[in-house]
Amino acid sequence: MEGADLEHILGKDWIIQSAGGATGTAYYAQSDVKRLFLKRNSSPFLAVLSAQGFVPKLVWTKRLENGDVVTAQEWLDGKALNVEEMQHPKVAHLLSSIHHSTELLDMLLRIEKQTITPVDTLFHVKHLVDKTNSLKHHLIIHKTLQYLKTRLHEIQYDRLVVCHCDLNHHNWMLSNHGELYLIDWDNARVGDPAMDIGRILQSYIPKEDWGHWLSNYGIEKSQYLMKRMHWHLLVDELVNFVYYLRNGLEKSANDHLNEIIQLHQQIEEWNL
Is 166 a catalytic residue? Predict the structure, then answer.
């Protein structure tokens, strides 16, 4: 999608500029009376996200001659949350609302998004490690795979939800009017809510505050939840570790390896 394509859609009264990002598929558009955020081939369930108030309002959707779909959302004045602001109760409340949305779940299941099961996940992770020769005798990775395997039957969870799966603080947008939104849904999957909950707790919430955060979300801290969280966190860190290792990014790989070691320490400390 080039600026010329957008100008054809919007008309010559609009100023269009790239919104940045690795894919180059997002743009800001501004006229004398309106401002929009445009994206090519965004999440097909954007309309449901908008209707539920989880993302800025969807204004229109149009199809280009080449088949690409362009969506336009309200361009709101605001900012991304910083690391400290992730501890605000609004984050827990919004994530809980997302996880409890039956409309979102129905839509995502309808558009064939694959459900993430622990069995499939473990098969995928083991395959990744087996294909990486340098890891065949890596003690920490071997320990991680053994843990994932032995705990597999203990972390099954049937009440699956829509998980965002990319809860970096940059994806939480606070408008100048105080509305909180969660953006960038390209990695969303149906799975155990512990995948999302664990990522926020481990990355942003002091451990002594985990119980309070979970209370704001609407559940109690339990061994069962902690086991599921740590299982999925180990998977996440292991996949990232292998990715960066294969691409020769040693520092990033070591960062994820250190996270794996930290998770094992927590597992032993809390008897998970």
Answer: yes
